[in-house]
Design a protein that fits this description.
- By secondary structure, the chain is α+β, with helices and mostly antiparallel strands.
- The chain has two domains: about 5-125, Rossmann fold (3-Layer(aba) Sandwich), CATH 3.40.50; about 135-300, Tumour Suppressor Smad4 (Sandwich), CATH 2.60.200.
- The chain has helices spanning about 20-35, 50-60, 75-85, 105, 115-125, 150-160, 170-185, 240-250; strands at about 10-15, 40-45, 65-70, 90-95, 125-135, 140, 145-150, 185-190, 195-210, 210-215, 215, 230-235, 260-265, 270-275, 280, 285, 290-305.
- It has a 15-stranded mixed sheet that branches. The chain has a two-stranded antiparallel ribbon with strand order 10-11.
- β15 (about 280) and β16 form a beta hairpin.
- The N and C termini lie close together (about 10 Å).
């Protein structure tokens, strides 16, 4: 619990989230937030890819905010978290849910009602949560799930190419997944974890601290307050098996008893390929030109309101 007199919040707003509705509604939303928030606040509009990182880092370096509130969805949260990480500041992280995809907030049972969200932020109760540090040709940190393989291709279609953008919610990602399967070609890779080395032709690889990504339960064994990342990997899958596995991923009902499927936990993971690997974190593609990616867990790194 924090002394309310010493708190101040910075809201980082992605105006393009929720199909642009966040930007259109922000003035009205912020007016309501200010009447209910128990301490001073300011906001920054992050109007462009990567601007959330820049705005968060700059303002935290300049001023002594105690709380940073990400306004948007998974991509918006990821940019704010990277801004906090880059600034080196010790602040509390909160959220105003306003995204088309809200996997992370679903994972932590964050309410969708605005009044309840403000109530949690006012309450000041936090829990230190882990992040994944991911680096290849560039570096990024992740709150939710990082992946390569077909999942990264689907994320690229969704956030960069903006495919099927007129379709909302999980159904869009289901259609993009089917589309991606028919385009995907498995890649020869080696994955090295804490306790084993796996070689094969990669279909997909996902790692992190949250169970849900794109509406699929990709890491059913994840612990969002854990010290090691959970990972799920599949190799040598044909297109028909990949479509069948989508059903398992919807329910989280899969195991290493299934041929080519690997599950585990690791504090460090290295992925090496013969070709460049597309990698994404929290739905945002970020690494395009390297054949080696390393993931490291950083326990208890970010204080999140609960």
């Amino acid at each position: 619990m924090y002394n309310m007199n010493n708190r101040s919040a910075l809201f980082i707003v992605n105006p393009e989230s929720q199909g642009g509705r966040t930007g259109k509604n922000w003035e009205k939303m912020y007016s309501k937030i200010k009447t209910k928030l128990n301490f001073p606040s300011e906001f920054e509009i992050a109007d462009g890819i990567g601007k959330g990182i820049i705005r968060t880092e700059e303002r935290l370096r300049e001023e002594g905010f105690t709380d940073v509130i990400a306004v948007g969805g998974d991509g918006s949260i990821n940019e704010v978290v990277n801004g906090i990480y880059n600034s080196g500041k010790d602040v509390n992280l909160g959220f105003i849910m306003s995204g088309s995809a809200n996997d992370y907030l679903t994972n932590i049972d964050w309410p969708s009602d605005l009044d309840k969200q403000i109530e949690l932020i006012n309450g000041g109760n936090t829990m230190p949560t882990p992040i994944s540090k991911v680096y290849g040709d560039v570096e990024r940190v992740s709150m939710n799930v990082a992946d390569t393989g077909i999942g990264a291709l689907i994320a690229y279609s969704a956030s960069v190419e903006r495919r099927l953008k007129w379709i909302k919610g999980e159904f869009r990602y289901t259609l993009l997944s089917i589309r991606g399967i028919f385009k995907w070609k498995n890649l020869p890779i080696t994955v090295i974890t804490d306790d084993r080395s796996i070689e094969g032709d990669l279909s997909f690889f996902m790692a992190g601290f949250s169970k849900l990504s794109g509406g699929f339960i990709v890491l059913p064994h994840a612990d969002r307050f854990g010290k090691k990342m959970a990972y799920t990997m599949a190799t040598d899958l044909g297109k028909l098996r990949m479509i069948r596995l989508m059903g398992n991923l919807k329910t989280g009902d899969f195991s290493e008893d299934m041929k080519g499927v690997y599950l585990g936990h690791s504090s460090r993971i290295t992925i090496k390929g013969d070709e460049s690997l597309l990698f994404e974190v929290d739905g945002e593609p970020f690494s395009f030109d390297t054949n080696k990616i390393t993931l490291e867990s950083i326990p208890n790194k970010i204080r999140v309101f609960i």
